[in-house]
Amino acid sequence: MTRAALGAQTSTGWAQGGIAAALGDDDSAALHLDNTLAAGDGLCDRKAAETILAAAPDAIAFLERHGVAFDHNADGSFAFGLEAAHTRRRILHAGGDATGAAVITALTQAVSATPSVTVMPDTEVRRLIVADDEIRGLLCERHGQPLALATNRVVMATGGVGGLYETSTNPSGNFGQGIMLAARAGAALADMEFIQFHPTALATDIRPLPLISEAVRGEGAILVNENGERFLATTPGAELAPRDIVARAIAAEIARGGRVFLDARQALGNRFAARFPRLPQSAQKPA
Ligand SMILES: Cc1cc2nc3c(=O)[nH]c(=O)nc-3n(C[C@H](O)[C@H](O)[C@H](O)COP(=O)(O)OP(=O)(O)OC[C@H]3O[C@@H](n4cnc5c(N)ncnc54)[C@H](O)[C@@H]3O)c2cc1C
């Protein structure tokens, strides 16, 4: 079940930049792991990172089998993008910056075509029913009416907690309800301090904020302050340093009363709209 229409109001559908997978001739899962552990600054669970990264090529093949058309070069090879902390171009994208939309379209079609799956859209889970330390069911709200379902198995994939923050790029209907549901049912919560602060979003009154994909920096756009100073110039990796470093540097500029601009004029110029077709659109209206 899902609280909106199937695939709607999901961060997945809004993801722009793409998916990292070590699929290039110059790349390997081991190098991807090294990059990930370095960016994780000693906080990664090595075994989990290793398992996930080793499975990435198969995950891409799975998505392709279900109809996600990743962008390719004229010679048929994947058109890899570059993002922060990666020492290889290994980001696969679809439709330029419409990767998440391509993924959600393919997966919702696959789910809808699977007879063994019953989809219950517009159904919000409000409580997990627990008795004698066991899950017994769900209490939901559907079209303004309560609905109870009996089950002893629940898998939650309810998205993140970004909506708890004043400025967020997440769908505004989602603010960590899944974590609350799990906590109330007695689940042990782990790693709650790990919130991702994406460094770049457009400074507007629009909520949620329109995200500016990291791939824009991957294509060479630079961050400058109101004096035109490239304030990450001497930081290792500069604009492609790990996200926490870039986000802190931007926050420091704003905290001293400065302003921050992402300058893509030299790196992309007239190619900007073709490479990032959704960005100008998302800057005007939330998707
Ligand atoms: C603008 C943007 C750009 C991004 N770009 C990238 C990128 O380029 N690359 C990348 O790797 N990541 C990117 N991310 C992050 C990535 O999209 C998310 O980490 C990922 O999509 C989360 O997937 P999910 O399935 O956990 O949550 P979601 O895709 O948000 O799905 C959660 C689902 O749970 C449902 N739900 C929530 N609460 C309830 C409830 N109580 N009852 C019933 N249903 C409920 C929601 O309706 C929704 O269907 C981006 C995120 C955003 C917002």
Folded structure, characterized:
The chain has nine helices and seven strands. The protein is α+β, with helices and mostly antiparallel strands and 287 residues long. The protein has three domains: 11-112, no CATH class; 123-184, no CATH class; 214-282, Flavocytochrome C3, Chain A, domain 1. A hairpin with a 2-residue loop joins strand 4 and strand 5 (145-150). Helix 2 (29-40) packs across helix 3 (46-65). The protein is globular and about 60 Å long. Flavin-adenine dinucleotide binds at residues 1-4, 9-12, 14-19, 99-100, 124-125, 157-159, 169-170, 174, 177-178, 211, 213.
SSE blueprint and pairings:
Elements: H1 11-14, E1 19-20, H2 29-40, H3 46-65, E2 91-92, H4 99-112, E3 123-131, E4 134-142, E5 145-150, H5 177-184, H6 214-218, E6 222-225, H7 243-255, E7 260-263, H8 272-275, H9 278-282
Antiparallel strand pairs: 1-2, 3-4, 4-5, 6-7
Helix pairs in contact: 2-3
The protein binds flavin-adenine dinucleotide.
Element-by-element helix/strand order: HEHHEHEEEHHEHEHH
Described by the principal axes of the CA atoms, the overall outline is globular
Q: Mind telling me the C-alpha Rg?
A: 21 Å
Q: Would you tell me the structural class of the helices and strands?
A: alpha+beta
Mean pLDDT: 92
Compute the number of strand runs. 7
Strand fraction band? 5-15%
Q: Count of helical segments?
A: 9
Distance between the termini: 22 Å
Helix content: 25-40%
Biggest β-sheet description = 3 strands, antiparallel
Brief description of this entry?
By secondary structure, the protein is of the alpha+beta class. It has 9 helices and 7 strands.
